[in-house]
Design a protein that fits this description.
Structural class: alpha+beta
Pfam families: DAO
Number of strands: 20
CATH superfamily of the largest domain: FAD/NAD(P)-binding domain
CATH class of the largest domain: Alpha Beta
Strand content: 25-35%
Distance between the termini: 29 Å
Keywords: Oxidoreductase
Shape: elongated
Order of helices and strands: EHEEHHEEEHEEHEEEEEHEEEEHEEEH
CATH architecture of the largest domain: 3-Layer(bba) Sandwich
Largest sheet: 8 strands, mixed
Number of helices: 8
Strand order of the largest sheet: 6-7-5-15-16-17-14-18
Protein name: D-amino-acid oxidase
Helix content: 25-40%
Oligomer: single chain
InterPro entries: FAD-dep_OxRdtase, FAD/NAD-bd_sf
């Protein structure tokens, strides 16, 4: 078996690492550098708290344990287990979901001491965290290489190749074909065009993901904070990032929410294009009409990457259909 993984974002890197670790021959191909696409534009909050329903609910619930497993396998993985704190401007406190607890204003101040006016209630998820998404991706790629994977960066894949019998035979690149018996498409929004090269419709569209960066005092924000105005976290002693529709409104909200934030400055913003399946759930599994073709495209890629990498590797290498992925199959569309 020779497995070609197309896409060195966090999902493709995880698949390549886990497949190589399982002992298969792996080639990882990407048009750029590891994590340089939409992975770099991710807010990178890793959280499974509150998850109750959906085809991938069980996988999401296991996401934190999967990250801790990969942390043990790849020492130095850039993960911060800060917990997350969420509140709304109005309304009654919701019921706590799995991994959550409802906390009062005093506890909010203990967790986030710079909040100007702590809410009457907030949802605290102690098990949540955040990652450096590019750093995690690079570490997964290095781990794949350590297990024998071949890495082709700055290499555009233009199409999937098939043999005379219709089975996958590899991929086409400007430097020539790369042969393989299995091709895993984990190329985010580009997965749709690559699937179309062999007549496969992949029900995924680009969805805007704005990310703003701020200069801020050290220790201003200690957890992952989720409010009506932003998702916010501190990524360096003098840096914050926020997922918010308007960077300018997010800046005003940060200054209004936290004491000592008057000097926070907007450094810039980017608008990424995250892959969004038509029903919001991951598209993961083999394509029946093209033997040897496997899809792995999803929203919440940063949270799900370690778990999905392990599950995909099991299916691709061992040929065992995992029940956890039963609701994620491409043929549901």
């Amino acid at each position: 078996m020779t497995v070609i993984v197309v896409g060195a974002g966090i999902v493709g890197a995880s698949v390549a690492y886990h497949v190589a670790r399982a002992g298969a021959a792996v080639t990882l191909v990407d048009a750029g550098q590891p994590g340089a696409g939409v992975t770099a534009d991710s807010f990178a909050w890793i959280g499974a708290s509150g998850v109750r329903t959906g085809p991938a609910a069980g996988i999401r619930v296991s996401a934190m344990d999967e990250y801790r497993r990969v942390e043990a396998e790849l020492p130095g993985l850039p993960v911060t287990w800060s917990g997350s704190l969420a509140w709304r401007a109005a309304g009654d406190a919701p019921a706590a979901g799995p991994g959550q607890e409802i906390v009062d204003a005093g506890r909010v101040l203990a967790l986030e001491p710079h909040v100007r006016q702590p809410p009457e209630w907030a949802v605290w998820a102690a098990g949540d965290g955040a990652v450096d998404p590019v750093g995690v991706t690079a570490r997964l790629v290095a781990g794949a290489r350590d297990h024998g994977a071949r890495i082709h960066l700055d290499t555009v894949v233009s199409a999937v190749r098939r043999d005379a019998a219709g089975r996958v035979a590899g991929v086409e690149t400007p430097a020539g074909p790369l042969p393989g018996t299995t091709v895993v498409l984990a190329a985010g929004v580009a997965t749709a065009a690559l699937g179309a090269s062999v007549g496969v419709r992949v029900a995924v569209e680009p969805s805007p993901c704005p990310l703003a960066r701020f200069r801020a005092p050290a220790g201003l924000v200690r957890t992952v904070v989720n409010t009506d105005d932003f998702d916010l976290r501190q990524v360096a002693p003098d840096r914050l990032i926020a997922a918010a529709d308007s960077p300018e409104r997010a800046l005003a909200a940060v200054r209004a929410t936290f004491r000592g934030a008057a000097g926070v400055e907007l450094l810039g913003s980017r608008l990424g294009a995250r892959p969004m399946p038509a029903d919001g759930e991951p598209i993961v599994g083999p394509v029946a009409d093209v033997p040897g073709l496997y899809l792995a495209v999803m929203h919440s890629a940063v949270t799900l990457a370690p778990a999905m990498g392990r599950l995909v590797a099991r299916e691709v290498v061992d040929g065992v259909a995992d029940p956890a992925l039963a609701g994620c199959r491409p043929d549901r569309f």
